[in-house]
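Example record used in the benchmark description.
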Amino acid sequence: MDPAANLVGTGCAAYAEAVPEGEGSVAGMAKDPVAVAASNNPLLTTLTKAVSGKLNKDVNLVDTLNGDQFTVFAPVDDAFKALPEKDLKAVVENADMLTKVLTYHVVPGQISPDDLKGEVKTVEGDAVKISGSGDDLMVNDAKVICGGVQTANATVYLVDSVLMPPSK
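Model output (structure tokens):
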């Protein structure tokens, strides 16, 4: 199957142009489990550091993410840069909060772009709201830049904002 067959989002062409081949390309990501695939994607360096214990040594979700089927809403590096530095630092320094934020970006099971709609419960426990469709797909207030990217065990949606779980 063509890994690019189900891609949605206005940023897919730019992503394909920026990473036309190799492990971080759409075709390359399809060969690896999601955490490995993300680590090869040059748009996801901050997310990769966050899930692999490089931002907080007490938060390492690599084995978890590679060990089951997931849908992952992956904030690109610019999404992290858009956060106020003090807010990002506060989340990164608190292992429980960082885990909560990261798992709010992950949904059990692989969901294709055509089936991604309504409210979807995350691994964190709260739901994200999916709206729009095709190239206008949104997750809460985050725009999907390029979604439907396949990895060996996940469907990935690159998003332009870091999703924050609701405060309780």
